[in-house]
Design a protein that fits this description.
Number of strands: 10
Helix content: 40-55%
Largest sheet: 6 strands, mixed
Structural class: alpha/beta
Bound molecules: ligand F0G
Radius of gyration: 21 Å
Shape: globular
Distance between the termini: 53 Å
Number of helices: 16
Order of helices and strands: HHEHEHEHEHEHEHHEHEHHEHHEHH
C-alpha cells in the first residue's frame, strides 16, 4: 500500500532546499509554490540548427508555478517580507515579476500592487497578475518609469519593494545556478540568457561564484548576455529613453543591476550583444519547432545571440557545453505566438473532409 506521504512531492521549493546558502531573513516557514527544480533539457536538434559541434541544454524556467524564473526570487522576497512583518508589497514590471509577486503575495495573505506599462504587457502576464488578486496599475510610461515611481512610493509608504533592487530576490534567483551545477556535477562552459533589468545575470554569477568558492565546481561559465536591439542600454553604453522590442519582458532602457552585470560579464570573460526582433522571432519559432519547448520571445534572444556570435566569428563553441536559460513560458504571450502563423484549417466533421486535407485520396 502506498502511504499518503509517498504521494506528496519531496521537493519543498528553493528556499527550503538551499536555505543555508540564502542570505535572507527566513525565520518563518517559506512562502512557496514549490518553485524551482526545473528541467535541464538536452536540445540536440536546436544545437544543429545553431551550427552543431557543441552540446546545448535548455534550463526551462517556464515550468515554474507562475510560468517564469521570477518565482525563485519571489519565494525568497515574500518569505523575508513576511518574516519582517510586512503587510503589502509593490513592484514595477514588464509582466512576469507582476504575476509572480501577485501569486506569492496571495499565498502569504499580503496585499500586492503592481505597475505595468500600459498596453505593453503580454496577455498571460496580465491575466496572471489580475487573477491572483493584485491591484494592477497601468502607467502611460515604460518599466523604467514604473520602477522610479515604486521606489519613491516605498520611501513614503509602509510597503515593501519586491523588484530586484531587493537583495532577497537575487538570493532566490541564484538557486538556478546551483541547480545547473547540481545536475551536471560542474558548471557548463557557457551560460546564455536574456538581459533586461540585469538581475538574473547578476544572480547567476553570484550562484556560480559561491559554488566555486565552496569547492563544489572547479570553474565558472563564461556568460553570454542578450539584449533586444531596440532596448540594449548595456550593449550601447547609455540609457535608452524609449526602449522598444517585441520581447516586451526585456523592454528596459535603464537596468538597475547594470554595473553588476558588467562586472559579471568581465569576470567571466563573457560577451553581451544585441539581436533584432526578426532574429528573436526566428529562434522563438525554432526552439518550439525543433525541440517542443515553447518559450516567450525574450528567451529566444539568447539563441539569437549564439547564432550572431557564430556568424560573426567571435563565439567559438566547438566541443563546449552550453546552457541557455529559457526564462518564461510561451503561453505567457499568446498574441505573439499566434501572429504570423496560419490560422487552423476549418473543415466539416466528416472523414472525407479530413482525407481531403491529408491528401490521401
Ligand atoms: N526573461 C524574462 C521572461 C523576463 O520576464 C525578464 C525580466 C528577463 C528575461 C530579464 O531578466 O530583468 O533580471 O535581466 N522581467 C522583469 C519583469 C523585468 O518585470 O518581469 P532581468
Amino acid at each position: 500500500m502506498v502511504s499518503a506521504a509517498h504521494t506528496v512531492s519531496t521537493w519543498h521549493g528553493v528556499v527550503a532546499h538551499y536555505r543555508p546558502r540564502l542570505r535572507i531573513n527566513s525565520s518563518v516557514p517559506p512562502v512557496t509554490l514549490l518553485e524551482g527544480n526545473t528541467p535541464l533539457i538536452p536540445a540536440p536538434r536546436l544545437a544543429r540548427a545553431l551550427g552543431g559541434d557543441f552540446e546545448l541544454l535548455l534550463k526551462y524556467e517556464g515550468v515554474n508555478p507562475t510560468g517564469s524564473f521570477k518565482d525563485r526570487g519571489m519565494t525568497a522576497a515574500i518569505t523575508q517580507a513576511v518574516a519582517d512583518g510586512a503587510q503589502a508589497v509593490i513592484c514595477a514590471s514588464t509582466g512576469n515579476t507582476a504575476a509572480s509577486a501577485a501569486a506569492y503575495a496571495a499565498r502569504a495573505g499580503l496585499a500586492c500592487v503592481v505597475l505595468v506599462p500600459d498596453g505593453k504587457i503580454a496577455a498571460g502576464k496580465l491575466a496572471g497578475a489580475l487573477s491572483y488578486g493584485a491591484q494592477v496599475i497601468a502607467i502611460n510610461g515604460n518599466f523604467d518609469d514604473g520602477l522610479r515611481m515604486v521606489r519613491e512610493a516605498t520611501e513614503r509608504a509602509p510597503i515593501v519593494l519586491v523588484n530586484n533592487i531587493n537583495p532577497a530576490r537575487l538570493q532566490g534567483q541564484k538557486t538556478a545556478a546551483f541547480e545547473i551545477c547540481d545536475a551536471l556535477g560542474e558548471a557548463p562552459d557557457w551560460l546564455c540568457l536574456p538581459v533586461g533589468n540585469a538581475g538574473n545575470i547578476t544572480a547567476y554569477w553570484m550562484g556560480f561564484t559561491e559554488y566555486l568558492e565552496d569547492g563544489l565546481i572547479r570553474s565558472r561559465p563564461r556568460l553570454l548576455g542578450a539584449q533586444a536591439a531596440g532596448a540594449a542600454p548595456i550593449v550601447r553604453g547609455h540609457v535608452v529613453e524609449k526602449p522598444e522590442t517585441i520581447a516586451t519582458a526585456i523592454r528596459i532602457g535603464n537596468p538597475v543591476r547594470w554595473q553588476q552585470a558588467l562586472a559579471a560579464l568581465s569576470e567571466s570573460n563573457g560577451h553581451i550583444t544585441d539581436v533584432t526582433d526578426e532574429e528573436i522571432l526566428h529562434w522563438y519559432r525554432m526552439v518550439a519547432q525543433t525541440e517542443g519547448v515553447f518559450v516567450e520571445p525574450a528567451c529566444a534572444s539568447s539563441l539569437a545571440a549564439i547564432a550572431k556570435g557564430r556568424r560573426e566569428g567571435w563565439l567559438d563553441l566547438r566541443g563546449k557545453r552550453v546552457v541557455c536559460v529559457m526564462t518564461g513560458h510561451g503561453l505567457k504571450d499568446p498574441d505573439t505566438a499566434l501572429s504570423g502563423l496560419p490560422a487552423p484549417v476549418t473543415i466539416q466533421p466528416q472523414i472525407e473532409a479530413l482525407l481531403d486535407v491529408l491528401q490521401v485520396r
